[in-house]
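SECTION: protein entry
WANTED: fold as tokens:
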Amino acid sequence: MKKTKTEINKESMFMVTIQRLAKNKLAVAGLIIIVLMVLAAVFAPIIAPYGYEEQDLYNTLQGPSLEHLFGTDDLGRDIFSRIIYGGRNSLSIGLISVFFSALSGIALGAAAGYYGGKIDMIIMRVLDVLQAMPAILLAIAISATLGPGFTNCIIALCISQIPGFARMSRASCLNVQGMEFIEAASSINAKDFRIIFKHVLPNAISPIFVQATMSVATAILTSASLSFIGLGVQPPQAEWGAMLSAGRNYIRGYSHIVMFPGMTIVLAVLSLNMLGDGLRDALDPRLKN
């Protein structure tokens, strides 16, 4: 079966994007690091030498060694194992919260940008109210209201990130709103749902995709902040921010307790930001190689 010209063009653009991304060494490095972190989290029971709850009260506050690569905490738990298991919570919170906030924000922004008028005004004014409060404070307020925990942390992060995706989606939709292919679809009486999701969003998805990558990094950092103040994942579950909180009282004498979780957060956020920058450059049609 022969491919249509549109399908060939889409494949060509996809390959051009991949080639541009592959030329960006920092973006490739960020992608490799994130993939390794995800794989380590998925196969944590195989990779981690100890369980995240496993205590050894005879070897508390031990420094890095061959037996414990990153040392042990105040309860004798292996820090390396807890970081690997903690990746399950930290990465899951970041990915899941961004996924649902992106879906909600894209739907709201597309509706506002496509229909305009009162619908646009109502949606954007509600989002203005949400954005009047800094995202971290809004997440803290929601988590404090719902209570600590994995699920509530995801809900808090999801709600706090919806306005950003909605505004990006609305702006992108407005850019393609008056183009010929949109008018052609309207002239043949195509349904609004089909026009928005078949014609408008696919041509406005590049900046949204880049923002989603950056938002995962922000979500990981925010979830660590919530866990640090006791509003995120609760002990004995392993989570990078919670590990920082548990080890802050030992930072002077046993700095390894907070150094390794902190370095892991920095590495994850930095890698996602490098990948996001690379995607932005690769998806920019104005760049020519």
Remarks:
- The chain has a mean pLDDT of 85.
- The radius of gyration is 22 Å.
- Residues 79-115 form the longest helix (37 residues).
